[in-house]
Amino acid sequence: MKTFYKNTDTSNKISMKIMEALKPFLFVKKVKKQETLVMEGDTCNKIYFVRSGAVKQYYIGDDGKEFIQNFYFEGNMAALYNCFLTQSPADAYLEAIEGTELWVLSYHNFQAISSAKPEFTNQLTICMSRMNANRINLLLMSDGLLRYQKFLEKEPEVTQRVPQYMIASYLGMSPETLSRIRKRMAVKKAA
Q1: Cα–Cα–Cα angle for 178, 184, 187, rounded to 5 degrees
Q2: CATH says 2-137 is which class?
Q3: Helix (H) or strand (E) holding 163
């Protein structure tokens, strides 16, 4: 379990205590790059905990364009949590960005654990709420440069693992805009 925690101080990481309690209820799943875990319209019956690798959450707009809502890395819980809790059809996709190893919690086991230990559900809900609040706060920053700087502050290694066009989508801008921002930052740094 220790390999699951690289940056335990990040607000969307699951605590070691919770992961240890979950261990008997989890199974391991390995997925390849670009393998889909959840498709829009599927019933969300699993929560994924990223042990290694990376997963993206996205939806497809009416024009067929992909909009990235979240990235999940080591120590993150990857889930369409509201759809999971209500067992309603998925409103987005979960897909591996790179070869990924996951610990998987089924809805059945989630229900059993939640009945025995209601605080477990509270902890997962707090984790997802923090992650969603951080995401909303990032998007509300009107300046693209500020959004990119905050993103780099929180997840500096992401630029080495995720293509620039995905980062641009996540930040709500075009790849060209992100490229201009990166050039401006490089010029300022060199000066």
Answers
A1: 140
A2: mainly beta
A3: none
For residues 76 and 50, is the Cβ–Cβ distance under 8 A?
yes
Domain residue extents for the chain:
2-137, 141-191
Residue-level pLDDT at 142: 66
Residues 6 or more apart whose Cβ sits within 8 Å of residue 10? 75, 154
Asked if 107 and 79 touch (Cβ cutoff 8 Å), the reply is: no
Listed residue (94, 79, 91) closest to 125, CA to CA: 79
pLDDT digits (tens, 9 = 90+) for 58-72: 999 889 899 998 898
Structural contact between residues 78 and 94, judged by C-beta atoms closer than 8 angstroms: yes
Q: What is the DSSP letter of 2?
A: G
Low-confidence ranges of the chain (pLDDT < 70): 1-15, 131-135, 137-142, 191
